[in-house]
Design a protein that fits this description.
Strand order of the largest sheet: 1-2-4-3
CATH topology: NADH Oxidase
Bound molecules: flavin mononucleotide
Oligomer: single chain
Radius of gyration: 17 Å
Strand content: 15-25%
Largest sheet: 4 strands, antiparallel
Number of helices: 6
Number of strands: 4
Number of domains: 1
């Protein structure tokens, strides 16, 4: 058998601890490519990515939300996934696919990642979306979906096995 997509999907786990090792420019470009090749509704291509590789800026991104941002503490790279709300009424779906592609490509490259939600979340002062827009000078028309924290894994997480499958969540021909 050639490339094992099933194995890749089962191996990907959320990684929230990263080694103090920068990603190479090649790695970053491969991750960006995965996000940009992800499909968008009517091919509107309204999803845009902001690569952040400056440590102090990544820590400021962490402050844009009041909880669940541990992954940004040690990540050497973060990709902010945003969508043009004027181009698409399904920018959330488009962005989610791009983010997932980035996460799977990260696993494929032997890297770890975690999705940090920003949409519908808050900091101590404002919505996380507003905080991120201000910090990175993102125009108002863009929604901020999430930040993918990326880096070399500094924790071990077991791959999923067939036993982890919730078969009850699948229905055939009727609910
Ligand atoms: C839409 C979405 C939002 C998430 N938000 C966060 C988050 O804000 N912070 C975080 O650490 N993990 C977040 N996660 C990661 C989930 O907690 C994680 O995927 C889930 O617990 C399953 O674990 P696994 O990724 O190892 O399979 C998010 C995942 C998704 C799909």
């Amino acid at each position: 058998m050639g490339f094992d997509m099933s194995n890749l999907i089962m191996k990907r786990r959320s990684i929230r601890n990263f080694k103090d090792v920068k990603l190479t420019e090649e790695e970053i470009q491969e991750l960006v490519k995965a996000g940009l090749f992800a499909p968008t509704s009517r091919s509107n291509k309204g999803v845009e990515l902001i690569v952040v590789d400056e440590k102090d800026l990544i820590l400021k991104l962490k402050d844009c939300r009041n909880t669940s941002t541990k992954g940004l503490e040690t990540a050497p790279c973060a990709i902010v996934v945003i969508g043009d709300r004027e181009k698409s009424d399904v920018w959330v779906e488009d962005g989610a696919i791009a983010a997932s592609y980035i996460q799977l490509r990260a696993e494929d490259l032997g890297l770890g990642s975690v999705w940090i939600q920003m949409r519908n979340r808050v900091s101590d002062n404002d919505s996380s979306e507003n905080e991120v827009r201000r910090l990175l000078s993102i125009p108002e028309k863009y929604g901020v979906l999430c930040i993918i924290a990326l880096g070399h894994k500094n924790e071990n997480k077991e791959a999923y096995t067939e036993n982890d499958l919730d078969r009850f969540r699948v229905h055939y021909n009727k609910f």
